[in-house]
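Worked problem 6 (solution included).
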Amino acid sequence: MLRENRVELDRLIYPLFVVPGEGVEREISSMPGQYNFSVDKTIDAAKEAWDLGIPSVILFGVPTAKDAVGSESWNPEGEVQRAIRGIKKALPEMVVIADACFCEYTDHGHCGVLKDGYLQNDESLDNLAVQALSYAEAGVDIVAPSGMLDGFTLAVRTALEEGDYPNVAIMAYSAKYSSAFYGPFRDAVDSAPQEGDRSAYQMDPANSAEAIREVNLDVQEGADIVMVKPALSYLDIIHAVREEVDLPVAAYNVSGEYALLKAGAEKGWIDYDRAVMEVLTSIRRAGADLIITYHAKEMARLLAKGR
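Solution. The predicted structure is:
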């Protein structure tokens, strides 16, 4: 009765990884319980989440082919585009979010156009606009640009407005840190950089004031939701952002955070169910309105048991 913060299912967003093929359901070795799904199996996974009471999924694509600019990401018959159409047909009320970036689609693993070892911001923005528009045309509800490019929210907002998709929302990865906790995700989508790293365009983990500046820029550029990523090492940032802006705040409970709990449970070192509840409650307590988490289905079952 006196509990101050609760984790509700309608605040959870479940990530799904869409890969080429048919009938594919391949477990990700570094993320036990998470899978690479072909489009047909992605639709089934979305239905399972919906039946558990989870209202939203976010899609990440693994293409049939990669190139220097990630052009497969705006293919109207790409895996993510087909998954969007399939989920919205099967579950019209489910909120479908598409991650908009290029690291999964480029042969060098960086989040845009690369020249002489440096990301080309403006050229990458042009491609991002095309990618976002292709997701809108497929019927997505929310586009989530994640590359931390300067001006990425404005580029997406402009593309959506000019393309006559003003009702497609933007969830901006506003404060995305250069983190050690992304490793399992990069296994899932084969997106590790082939050279260098992403620290030139992702945030320094030591910085907090910069996060507020980045968030405010995205608010000014037309974001509907702002995000902090990762979550657990950045609970103070989530709280600071919540205090700063009058928009919904999302937090991404990322793959490395998930994998650590799985590894601890496998060793018998932690009470896994209690740890999941504690982690997600801490993210809510910090101020997140929405949580992207691989624990979403597990949390649904825990809540159904009255945990």
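Discussion: The chain has a mean pLDDT of 91.
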